[in-house]
Design a protein that fits this description.
Length: 339
């Protein structure tokens, strides 16, 4: 079970080590956080996933408040409801687990904590109405937590279930058709080849949350909102795009976002949560607007993660609800469900 006293000692030890050696932190637990409360929050969300991975609901109760609520596209779950939801996943997928994406780490901003997890398992029982396929699956989920009084009280999740449904043979691939619609070079496969990105121990996490917030506002009020590619010098020319659906570079990034904007001219990426620490910031967005091609109301969520370097956006990761995205764009049947 999570023990609250351990974090302050670990934080102090990591700070002392950094002061003595000037080492770059190897991960977000290793001297990245400048506040012992942030260190404790980092440990706490890791304890949450550790309890889930071990199926230990008693330990889960030790880090999650009784009035905990979890939100995603399919609705709101209580603490009990979330346990039931996770049991269904572990029954459907042998070895189902979340692992912290350590290249990004755990980002803490006041009472909000952001983390991206890689997800894996083997399909051994029914999932979303589809019988066992024996297929190994891998995907990602991104999470925003709210921590109060030493317990996790809220959780917002974006889970890429499209990748799971394709890997178990439940649906036809739609990723390439969506790329072609946006004018992006086709990856030529059913799934984008995501990369882990720059190691945390290379970039180290040092930076200014205030600068991150300024850059976030420029991007969301800029090309995300208007489709305009002007005044984009705040994006590094050699931007690293780890999602796999566009090549690296400022130009492909802007071209894709501008093209997406043109397909829903009245739409916006509405930032619901912003979490900034060091040289990293994480934004959860709810996308709206009317799709020109299909007339559908666009209703999907995403989590974008950026690394800032020299005052520019240098690297990007994301988790997108691709199932709803492709349905709204009309490249995937609207009746497909993931529960």
């Amino acid at each position: 079970m999570f023990r609250h006293g351990a974090s302050s000692l670990q934080w102090a030890s990591a700070q002392k080590k950094d002061a003595m050696t000037d080492d770059i932190p190897a991960n977000s637990l290793d001297g990245f956080h400048r506040d012992p409360r942030a260190q404790q929050a980092d440990e706490q969300v890791r304890a949450f996933f550790d309890a889930l991975n071990r199926g230990d609901e008693l330990d889960l109760d030790g880090v999650v408040a009784r009035n905990f609520l979890s939100y995603d596209y399919n609705g709101t779950r209580t603490r009990t409801g979330y346990k039931r939801y996770h049991r269904r996943l572990t029954q459907a997928f042998d070895g189902f687990r979340h692992d912290v994406h350590e290249n990004i780490g755990v980002i803490v901003d006041e009472d909000l904590v952001a983390v991206r997890t890689t997800v894996a398992g083997r399909h051994v029982n029914e999932y979303a109405g589809h019988p066992a396929s024996g297929a190994q699956v891998d995907t990602s989920a991104s999470h925003i937590f709210r921590v109060r009084d030493g317990l996790i009280v809220e959780h917002w999740q974006v889970f890429d279930t499209y990748r799971i449904l394709v890997q178990i043979g439940a649906i036809a691939a739609a990723a390439g058709a969506w790329q072609e619609m946006l004018g992006a070079p086709s990856s030529g496969s059913a799934l984008f080849d995501e990369r882990s990105g720059t190691d945390f121990g290379v970039h180290g996490g040092a930076g200014s949350p205030a600068i991150s917030r300024e850059l976030q506002k420029k991007l969301w009020d800029g090309v995300f909102a208007t489709g305009s590619k002007e005044d984009s010098e705040y994006i590094a020319e050699d931007l690293i795009s780890n999602s796999g659906w566009i090549p690296d570079g400022r130009a492909p990034f802007l071209d894709a976002l501008s093209s997406a904007r043109a397909r829903k001219p009245d739409g916006r990426a509405n930032a619901t949560h912003i979490v900034a620490e060091g040289n990293m910031f994480v934004v959860r967005s709810a996308w709206d607007g009317t799709m020109v091609a299909t007339g559908r109301d666009h209703d999907a969520s995403s989590v974008d993660i950026f690394r800032v370097e020299n005052g520019q956006l240098q690297e990007h990761w994301e988790t997108v609800d691709q199932l709803r995205l492709y349905q709204d764009y009309g490249v995937l049947n609207a009746d497909i469900r993931d529960e």
